Q: What sequence folds into this?
């Protein structure tokens, strides 16, 4: 890499908890920190990361609104309720797990773990060299609770058969 790119990466990683945290940490270890030149790119990176999905969502909503305005009125609306279908009875020996919210709980825990790895600034400092990110710990606890509950529910359901 060129010297200019390395200096830009070092400046970004020094000024922001988000930029260059994972990808460019080996570069930072071998180089001397550059002198403070002012200017922060972290605000621009954060604005793009936050405003980008919002703008994308609003533009998708605007497109859907325009499409719904051009559709005939009879095709828009709620369908009348259908009569409930009876549940299919499974043959003996077939076990299907019952619907559960546990996979969603596990997904929330994994999302928090990922977010905590990216934003490591909120942490419990055990020593000068070792910090435990709080968001990661909360994510691990939520994921473990969801996984434990899911296995326990399936274990109980399997015991009835």
A:
């Amino acid at each position: 890499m060129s010297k200019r790119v390395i200096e830009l990466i070092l400046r970004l990683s020094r000024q922001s908890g988000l930029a260059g945290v994972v990808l460019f940490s080996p570069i930072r270890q071998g180089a001397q920190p550059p002198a403070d030149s002012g200017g922060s790119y972290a605000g621009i990176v954060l604005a793009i990361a936050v405003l980008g999905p919002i703008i994308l969502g609003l533009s998708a909503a605007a497109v859907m609104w325009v499409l719904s305005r051009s559709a005939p009125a009879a095709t828009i609306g709620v369908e009348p309720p259908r009569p409930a279908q009876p549940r299919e009875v499974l043959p003996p020996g077939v076990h299907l797990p019952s619907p559960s919210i546990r996979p969603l709980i596990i997904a929330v825990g994994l999302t928090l773990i990922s977010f905590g790895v990216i934003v490591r600034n909120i942490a419990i400092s055990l020593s000068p060299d070792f910090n435990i990110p709080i968001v990661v710990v909360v994510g691990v606890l939520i994921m473990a609770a969801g996984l434990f509950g899911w296995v326990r529910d399936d274990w109980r359901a399997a015991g009835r058969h």
Strands lie at 123-127, 130-133. Confidence is low (pLDDT under 50) at residues 19-26. The domain at 99-161 is CATH 1.10.287 (Helix Hairpins).
